[in-house]
C-alpha cells in the first residue's frame, strides 16, 4: 500500500492566506482573530463539545485508556490514569486539496 505524504498547514500559512484574502487587515489583527478562534475551539472541546467547521474538519476529545509504564532507569512500575487529547478529523474537501 502506497501512502502519500500529507502536507502540513501551519499557523503562518493560515495568516498569509488570510492576509491575501483581506489585505486591509493588519498582521496583528489577523493573529488576534486566529487566537480567538483557536481558544474558543479548545474551550469547547475541553467541555466535551464537538466542534465542526464545514469544509475544514471536526475537533473532538479523544480518551486514551489507562496504562502502566516502567521507568527504564529504576525499573519501577507506575500507572497512568485515563487521559484526554484533542482529535482532529479533516473533511473530505480539505483532504482533496
Strand content: 25-35%
Q: In terms of quaternary structure, what is this?
A: single chain
Name of the level-1 CATH class of the largest domain: Few Secondary Structures
Under the CATH scheme, which architecture of the largest domain would be assigned?
Irregular
Average predicted confidence as pLDDT: 87
Whole-angstrom Rg: 19 Å
Q: Report how far apart the termini are.
A: 21 Å
Number of discrete helical segments: 3
Overall structural domain count: 2
N to C succession of SSEs: HHEEEEEH
Tell me the CATH superfamily of the largest domain: IHF-like DNA-binding proteins
* DSSP, total strands: 5
> What gross morphology would you assign?
elongated
CATH topology-level fold name of the largest domain? HU Protein, Chain A
Structure description:
A hairpin with a 3-residue loop joins strand 1 and strand 2 (about 55-65). This protein has about 100 residues and is an alpha+beta fold. It has helices at about 10-20, 25-45, 90-95, and strands at about 50-55, 55-65, 65-70, 75-80, 85-90. It folds into two domains: about 10-50, no CATH class; about 50-95, IHF-like DNA-binding proteins (HU Protein, Chain A, Irregular). Helix content is about 35%, strand content about 30%. Helix 1 (about 10-20) packs across helix 2. The protein is built from three helices and five strands, in the order ααβββββα. The longest helix is centred in the middle third of the chain and has 20 residues, at about 25-45.
Amino acid at each position: 500500500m502506497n501512502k502519500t505524504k500529507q502536507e502540513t498547514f501551519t499557523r503562518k500559512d493560515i495568516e498569509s492566506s488570510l492576509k491575501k484574502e483581506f489585505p486591509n487587515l493588519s498582521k496583528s489583527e489577523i493573529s488576534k482573530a486566529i487566537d480567538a478562534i483557536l481558544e474558543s475551539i479548545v474551550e469547547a472541546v475541553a467541555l466535551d463539545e464537538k466542534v465542526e467547521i464545514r469544509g475544514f474538519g471536526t475537533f473532538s476529545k479523544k480518551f486514551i485508556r489507562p496504562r502502566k509504564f516502567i521507568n527504564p532507569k529504576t525499573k519501577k512500575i507506575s500507572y497512568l490514569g485515563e487521559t484526554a487529547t484533542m482529535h482532529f478529523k479533516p473533511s473530505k474537501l480539505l483532504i482533496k486539496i
